[in-house]
Design goal:
- By secondary structure, this protein is of the alpha/beta class.
- The chain has two domains: 77 residues, no CATH class; 137 residues, Rossmann fold.
- It contains ten helices and five strands.
- It starts with a helix and ends in an 11-residue tail after the last helix.
Length: 264
Amino acid sequence: MFFFLSKTLDLFLAPLTWALLLALAGLVALWRKRPRLGAALVGAGVLCLYAFSIEPVSNAIERAVESSAVKTVREGVTYDAAILLGGMVDVDASASSTARCYDDNVERLLAVFDLLRSGRARSAVISGGTHEPAGVPVVEATLLARQLEDWGISPARIVVDDRAINTRENALNVADIARVRGWKELVMVTSAYHVRRALGCFAAVGLAVDVLPVDFRAYDPALRSGSWLPRAATLFETTSALREWFGRGVYAAKGWTAPALPAR
């Protein structure tokens, strides 16, 4: 139910939805013979769509979301496990083809592979189930585990949590696994925009972790101003950043996050 409600509310937090609703309200006003109001609402819809589709606005929002993504990996420490949070598999494409299909968050997988390959982490715990109905052949954690094995990582070094369907469940399940296995030194790998919410979830279940943020999407505006031409891809990036902000608020309201635990 929570997953369904979050996705429904998520629709109404998208700038495209705002723009369409404003335009629709404007058309209704025009139909009711209120031309000034109608024109103003339609214009506001167009302005909304434009503003959230240009790089300067999108980048500013993304920078704000990523501002708390600070690397706390400690030099000289061999971690008991690297925590790989799901959210990088294109389930539909993977189910429809013979290939493993990933999205823009795949840097998470590459970073965990590098930690294992270099010996910085003894094991990896992969946490990520599926939101799809029963019978769908793609379970994210299982698919990612097979990928690491194909790259030469021993199955004995990989622990799979294929039940978690959100960040809260990631934290709960990994905490249980860590306690059973006696893991103390842990490093969590996730996208920069996701760090604050993920750290809060792990803190809420009493698990202290270092963090390796990857997949940074924002850039320093001092380096370039960004394009003022509206683009669908930019609108998507803006929407993703706003979605993360919304997610933080929901998690805080439900008591699923806490201040990050101090590093050892």
